[in-house]
From TrEMBL:
InterPro entries tied to this protein: Fe-S_metab-assoc_dom (IPR003808)
Record Gene3D superfamilies: 3.90.1010.10
Protein name as annotated: Fe-S metabolism protein SufE
Domain of life: Bacteria
Fe-S metabolism associated domain sequence ranges: 14-132
Length: 135
C-alpha cells in the first residue's frame, strides 16, 4: 500500500497498532477532532450528503489535478469515520478516487466489524458524493 497518501499511511499505522475496539474508538474520536471546520455557509443543504442518518456535509475543491475534501457531521463517531476516509482520499486525482474501495480501507484499519450497516451506507454515500463532485 505504498501508493497511499501520507495521512492514510499514518492512519493505517495508528489503527493497526490499536489493541482492540476501545482503542480504535478512542482513535476515531481523536481523528474526528482533526477535521478542518466548515463555516455556517458550507453547512448548507446543497453540501449535505443524502443517504446518511446523521447530518453530514461535504465540500471539495480541485487543487491542480488533485482533490481536497472537507467534511463535518453532528455525530462524533461519524466525524472520526469521515476523518479516516478523508485521510485516504485527500490529494488523489479523480481517477484514483474512483478506485478507492471504502470497505477494503476500513477493513485494513480493523474497523469493518464495527461499522453498522447504516454507518457503512453513510460512508458509501459520502464516497459516492466525492465521486460525483470529481466527475
Amino acid at each position: 500500500m505504498s501508493d497511499l497518501p501520507q495521512s492514510a499511511c499514518e492512519a493505517l499505522g495508528a489503527f493497526t497498532q490499536a489493541a482492540g475496539w476501545e482503542q480504535r474508538a478512542r482513535l476515531l474520536m481523536q481523528w474526528g477532532e482533526r477535521l478542518e471546520p466548515l463555516d455556517d455557509a458550507e453547512r448548507s443543504e446543497a453540501n449535505r450528503v443524502a443517504g446518511c442518518e446523521s447530518h453530514v456535509w461535504l465540500v471539495g475543491e480541485r487543487q491542480n489535478e488533485r482533490w481536497h475534501f472537507r467534511a463535518a457531521s453532528d455525530a462524533r463517531l461519524i466525524r472520526g469515520l469521515l476523518a479516516i476516509l478523508l485521510a485516504r482520499v485527500n490529494g488523489l486525482e479523480a481517477d484514483q478516487l474512483a478506485q478507492v474501495g471504502m470497505a477494503d480501507w476500513f477493513a485494513s484499519l480493523g474497523l469493518s466489524r464495527q461499522l453498522s450497516p447504516s454507518r457503512s451506507n453513510g460512508m458509501n454515500a459520502v464516497l459516492q458524493r466525492m465521486r460525483e463532485l470529481t466527475g
